[in-house]
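FORM 12-B: Structure-to-Sequence Request
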């Protein structure tokens, strides 16, 4: 145990990946702190989350960039795996290049507040 008192959630449209994630969490002994849901990302309100990790397809990143900008709160951390968010909407704070799996980190700016 790292001593971190946090809860983690995952949203996935594919039920098999939801079940796989739940099983992995159970086997890792983290199931009491994790919840995985079958849900449509586009219909899910992202404003409650203070950290978001995205495993998305290149074709969705432009629309997702807008959704994240509209729904996330100031200081929300976002990590995008494999494909970056739209650079017209977001500026990355750091990039980790690791072969075929680069990571981009973003932080919602201080002045932005999601529309109510």
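FORM 12-B RESPONSE
SEQUENCE OUT:
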């Amino acid at each position: 145990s790292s001593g971190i008192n946090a809860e983690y959630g995952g949203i996935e449209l594919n039920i098999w990946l939801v079940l796989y994630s739940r099983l992995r969490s159970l086997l890792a002994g983290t199931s009491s702190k994790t919840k995985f849901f079958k849900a449509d990302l586009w219909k899910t309100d992202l404003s409650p989350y203070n950290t978001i990790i995205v495993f998305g397809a290149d074709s969705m990143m432009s629309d997702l960039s807008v959704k994240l900008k509209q729904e996330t709160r100031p200081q929300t951390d976002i990590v995008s795996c494999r494909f970056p968010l739209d650079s017209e909407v977001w500026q990355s704070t750091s990039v980790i290049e690791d072969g075929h799996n680069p990571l981009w980190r973003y932080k919602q700016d201080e002045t932005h507040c999601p529309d109510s």
